[in-house]
Write a structure and sequence with these properties.
Order of helices and strands of chain B: EEEEEEEEEEE
Low-confidence stretches of chain B: none
Largest interface: A-B, 31 and 26 residues
Structural class of chain B: mainly beta
Low-confidence stretches of chain A: none
Order of helices and strands of chain A: EEEEEEEEEEE
Helix content of chain B: under 10%
Largest sheet of chain B: 6 strands, mixed
Number of helices of chain A: 0
Distance between the termini of chain A: 37 Å
Number of helices of chain B: 0
Distance between the termini of chain B: 41 Å
Shape of chain A: globular
Radius of gyration of chain A: 13 Å
Oligomer: heterodimer
Strand content of chain A: over 45%
Structural class of chain A: mainly beta
Chain lengths: 116, 111
């Protein structure tokens, strides 16, 4: 049973370009979470999605960031017009249930975004 | 604002030593506390704790939660170099689906 898959593992973008990060949850999991890890900081929650629905995006910056989890295919975290401050590791996690506070979230290996 | 604080931030021990990592929290509507191990890749799930005083154990690792004093500890006995990693503590609060993470404890086990 494959774990959570993320690609690409490393992504370099120039300022102003768009970044697309992909996440395929574990088989049987329909709940996806995105976290960001800035240097010297802990993991910070960004958004929680179920298939075709954004449930909570309270951790997402208001501009330039969006996320989706379509009926078919991986979840996508999209960052438009990237700036240097977006450089970070972006982790995706999945769980079989959601919203109960007792779910084990399983993490992918992360995408390290570098903005030059 | 919800807070999860881990201590120490970093630790260096010799192989065979026993270590105790600490995690304290101040959150609204606590649900559960989770420990993860992060090497240079995905955080790997270790334990989930929901009830006070009940120890969770897996091999040389064990953990316990104190909901009255709002903290948890992670113990590692007979440490090995493969235990070198960042250990993350995370808490479910409020809505119950966003994990609030501490900054982690970086453990280095030397031969």
């Amino acid at each position: 049973n494959a774990g959570v898959m993320q690609n690409p593992r490393h992504l370099v973008r120039r300022r102003g370009q768009e970044a697309r990060l992909r996440c395929s949850p574990m088989k049987g999991h329909s709940h996806v979470y995105w976290y960001r890890q800035l240097p010297e900081e802990g993991l910070k929650f960004m958004v929680y999605l179920q298939k075709e629905n954004i449930i909570d995006e309270s951790g997402m910056p208001k501009e330039r960031f969006s996320a989706e989890f379509p009926k078919e295919g991986p979840s996508i975290l999209r960052i438009q017009q990237v700036v240097r401050g977006d450089s970070a590791a972006y982790f995706c996690a999945s769980s079989p249930r959601g919203g109960q506070g007792i779910d084990e979230q399983y993490f992918g290996p992360g995408t390290r975004l570098t903005v030059t | 604002e919800d807070k999860v604080v881990q201590s120490p931030l970093s630790l260096v021990v010799h192989e065979g030593d026993t270590v105790t990592l600490n995690c304290s929290y101040e959150v609204t509507n606590f649900r559960s506390l989770l420990w993860y191990k992060q090497e240079k890749k995905a955080p790997t799930f270790l334990f989930m704790l929901t009830s006070s005083g009940i120890e969770k154990k897996s091999g040389r690792l064990s953990s316990i939660l104190d909901k009255k004093e709002l903290f948890s500890i992670l113990n590692i006995t007979a440490t090995q170099t493969g235990d070198s990693a960042v250990y993350l503590c995370a808490v479910y609060a409020n809505s119950g689906y966003a994990l609030n993470f501490g900054k982690g404890t970086s453990l280095l086990v030397t031969p």
